[in-house]
Specification:
The protein is of the alpha+beta class. Helix content is about 50%, strand content about 15%. It folds into 2 domains: about 60 residues; about 150 residues, 2-Layer Sandwich (Alpha-Beta Plaits).
């Protein structure tokens, strides 16, 4: 096998490994999986709006098996309460950091990750039908491999221990999921383009080197 063929096969193999990890091929959640999640989280809630658990279960039962993005609008609390396990006089950002200490590894290990994270630079520029949503301090979009990944994270008892830090650090928040029809930041697309370009460049150099080494 020539080195050029090995190069292309290696790139294809690397891409296939990444896609198999980054994509949930298990299809939509089954009712058995949902019932197991309900049993494992009985008596726990997500805090905030009491309807959050019901909305989550409806979201799970309407699963398509695809990735989704969680869109978050966040307003940090000005005077958060003191929390057990947090430093004395911890501010809202410190409390959120304690929450994310658990969430970031939990996300990354399951092919999920932040897509966009940033500070607000102005009040809402377009607002209709919502009261009290003029000001936000931060915004973020998080990618989840699937709803199965979400219940794997939320079903961990440590999630609820850390989730209290998030609730204490927020004045208000909205988080809702979307399934992207267009997602130019999808890592499968970006990695595919990078591997294609890099492999083609190396292949071209190998071909020139071979052509130069061949006798006339």
């Amino acid at each position: 096998m020539t080195s050029r063929r090995k190069l292309w096969l290696g790139s294809v193999f690397l891409y296939a490994v990444f896609v198999s990890w980054y994509t949930d091929f298990g299809g939509p959640l089954t009712e058995a999986e949902i019932q197991t999640f309900i049993a494992n989280t009985q008596g726990r809630d997500l805090g905030g709006d009491p309807s959050a658990r019901g909305a989550l279960l409806e979201f799970l039962r309407n699963d398509t098996g695809r990735q989704f993005l969680m869109v978050n609008a966040v307003d940090l609390a000005k005077n958060p309460p003191q929390m057990k396990g947090a430093p004395p006089d911890a501010d809202a950002q410190t409390l959120l950091d304690l929450y994310m200490e658990h969430m970031i590894p939990a996300l990354l290990s399951r092919a999920s990750h932040p897509v966009v994270v940033g500070k607000s630079v102005a009040n809402s520029l377009d607002l209709l039908g919502i009261e009290g949503a003029e000001a936000w301090s931060d915004g973020a979009i998080m990618r989840y491999r699937s709803r199965r990944t979400l219940i794997d994270i939320v079903g961990n008892p440590e999630f609820y221990e850390r989730h209290d830090f998030k609730l204490a650090g927020l004045e208000k928040t909205i988080a809702y999921p979307i399934e992207p029809r267009i997602h130019l930041g999808d890592l499968r697309l970006l990695l595919g383009l990078f591997l294609l370009a890099t492999t083609a460049l190396i292949d071209t150099r190998l071909a020139r080197k071979k052509a130069g080494a061949d006798p006339a």
